[in-house]
Design brief:
about 290 residues, alpha/beta, six-stranded mixed sheet, four-stranded parallel sheet, 11 helices, about 25% strand, globular
Length: about 290
C-alpha cells in the first residue's frame, strides 16, 4: 500500500481558500518585501494593500523565492508523518522557486517530488486540482501522479488581458516605449504563457474599453481549441464584478463548462500585472 500523499503549492497558484480547503492543498506563501517591510502573500498582505502603497509612494514590492532550506524543512515535516509529498511550483521560466524546490526534493528520493508547472496563477492551479483528484482516487503513487502532471501541463492554456503596462514597466518587464505606445493608442495587450518553456509573450493587442475588450479576448481565448469542459478559471487582479460576471456568462453560453471558477490573483502575480488584468485559463483535451 502506497503512503499517504500531501499536496503543496506556491501561493502564486491563486486558488481560493475554499478550493484549497476542498482539495486539501497546503499553500506555501511567497515572501513579499514592500516599503522595507516583510510580508507573506495572502496572509498579512493583499493586492489592494499593495496597490494603495503604490498609489501613495510609487513603490512596488519584490517577491522572494522560498529557499532550499525552507523547502527541505517542509518536506521533512511531511515525511516524518509517514507521507510522501508533491509540491507544484510556479514555472521555472518565471522564478527560481522550482529549482530550489527540486534541489530540496533530491534529499528525499522517492518521497518528495517537485513539479515545474511551466505556468503561473491558476495555470498552476489547474495542475494542483488535477493532482488533488488523483490523490483522492488513491490509485496512483506520488511518482505516477507526477508523471501524469508532466503530460497534462503541456495542455494548459493560460493568457491574460492587461489594462495597463505601468506595473510591467515599473517591474522592468517592458520598455518605456512599449508602455507609452500602448497608452497613446489605447491598446490592451494579451499576455500568453508558453506551456513548453513557461515564459510569457505578447499576443494580440486589443483596442477600446475594457468592458468590451475582455469579452472579445475571452472569445478569442477559447476559439478553435478542444477544451476539457470540466473546469475553467477566470482569474483577475482586481476588476469590476460586472466584467468578471460578463466573462462568466460568455463562457457559460459558449461551452458546457461544469465549473467556472472566478478567483482573485494574489500579490505574487498582481505585483507584475497591476490592477485591471483578467485571464481565462483551462486545459485542452489534446
Amino acid at each position: 500500500m502506497s503512503n499517504k500523499i500531501i499536496l503543496c503549492a506556491d501561493s502564486t497558484c491563486d486558488l481560493s481558500p475554499e478550493l484549497c480547503e476542498r482539495y486539501n492543498v497546503v499553500i506555501n506563501s511567497f515572501t513579499v518585501i514592500l516599503d522595507e517591510k516583510t510580508y507573506h502573500d495572502g496572509v498579512d498582505l493583499t493586492p489592494d494593500d499593495m496597490y494603495r502603497v503604490y498609489r501613495e509612494k510609487k513603490i512596488l514590492p519584490h517577491t522572494s523565492a522560498t529557499n532550499i532550506d525552507e523547502y527541505e524543512a517542509m518536506f521533512r515535516k511531511c515525511i516524518d508523518q509517514g507521507c510522501d509529498v508533491i509540491f507544484i511550483n510556479l514555472g521555472s521560466g518565471l522564478s527560481a522557486t522550482y529549482n530550489n524546490c527540486r534541489l530540496a526534493a533530491e534529499s528525499f528520493p522517492g518521497r518528495a517530488f517537485a513539479v515545474d508547472s511551466r505556468n503561473l496563477s491558476t495555470g498552476t492551479g489547474l495542475l494542483v486540482i488535477e493532482a488533488a483528484k488523483m490523490i483522492e482516487e488513491g490509485k496512483l503513487t506520488a511518482a505516477e501522479i507526477v508523471e501524469r502532471l508532466c503530460e497534462i501541463r503541456n495542455r494548459v492554456h493560460a493568457s491574460f488581458i492587461i489594462d495597463t503596462l505601468e506595473f510591467l514597466y515599473k517591474g522592468g518587464r517592458c520598455s518605456a516605449l512599449a508602455m507609452f505606445g500602448a497608452n497613446a493608442l489605447k491598446l490592451r495587450p494579451c499576455i500568453m504563457v508558453d506551456n513548453q518553456s513557461g515564459k510569457m509573450s505578447v499576443g494580440k493587442k486589443y483596442r477600446g474599453n475594457m468592458d468590451k475588450v475582455v469579452l472579445q479576448y475571452a472569445k478569442d481565448a477559447i476559439a478553435g481549441i478542444d477544451i476539457d469542459t470540466e473546469k475553467v478559471f477566470i482569474t483577475h487582479s482586481g476588476v469590476p464584478e460586472s466584467q468578471s460576471e460578463a466573462v462568466r456568462a460568455l463562457l457559460a453560453e459558449s461551452l458546457p463548462f461544469e465549473n467556472i471558477y472566478i478567483t482573485r490573483a494574489g500579490c505574487g502575480i498582481s505585483t507584475h500585472c497591476g490592477p485591471g488584468t483578467l485571464g481565462v485559463l483551462f486545459i485542452a483535451k489534446k
